[in-house]
Amino acid sequence: MSDHNPLPLARSKAAVREATKAWQAQGQRVALVPTMGALHDGHLSLIAAARRRADRVVASIFVNPTQFGPNEDFASYPRDEAADLAKLASAGCDLAYLPAAEEMYPAGEQTRVVPGALAEPLDGASRPGFFTGVCTVVAKLFGQVRPDLAVFGEKDFQQLAIIRRMTEDLALAVEIIGAPIIREADGLAMSSRNRYLTPPERRIAGRLPEILNKVATRIAGGVATDTALLQGLGDLEDAGLAPVDYLELRRADDLTPLPSRPLRRQEIEQARLFAAVMLGRTRLIDNIPLTRA
Questions:
Q1: 161-176 per-position pLDDT tens digit
Q2: Cis peptide leading into 70, omega within 30 of 0?
Q3: In whole angstroms, what separates CA 145 from the centre of its chain?
Q4: Active site residues
Q5: R_g (Cα) of the chain, nearest Å
Q6: 99, 12 in Cβ contact below 8 A?
């Protein structure tokens, strides 16, 4: 199971289950951090969050074909196994699970996990089938690894909400932990896709969180939601962060829209601002709460 790497590897569901079963038999808690590789400090913060809550940490690396649309970047998605494994080893990961596609989707398989209303807005509207692919692969990983808990980043806030709901609805017996967004010095949320950005695009990209914070400040300060969002849309387009896929304010708990009028204090506390924009060929997403704890 070692593949001659300082970090133990499992490439089959039998091997990963053998390892986690042995740990759990000794009374150890096992955490899973699912990734698609191309790891950065955001991913490593998830490993750190898992380490704080569990005795053993398993990180999976699998570029999941079922969550990519026909015109998306599955073929070009960055892959660098050696660099990823070195980062996981230095972060204190106990086991890397790197299944082949046929291990996750064997011949004859046909079941999909289709989420409900939480998956309809935002990325669900923009990327049909995306969350079905996410839920299916996460459910498979939970079944293969059998972790006690799993850690997901808040950068994919809608995904986190959907996985929480799926885990509860299907009684999957995994505790779901959300971890804060890790940002670059200029505020840009860390993402594997950021490496697609050219140097001029990278300079523009930092405007996204800056504009989101301005919109959030306006709404929290009493500007009507629809007015602030319209201003924000113009600011994004003026900055070159266009076309804008969406810029929306929704409740953090159930992702329902908030009123277009000025918000009450309780509504502000429950609100989260979501955006997805194109910058060249790169799709950037981000989200922030209206109030910071």
A1: 999 999 999 999 999 9
A2: no
A3: 19
A4: 43
A5: 20
A6: yes
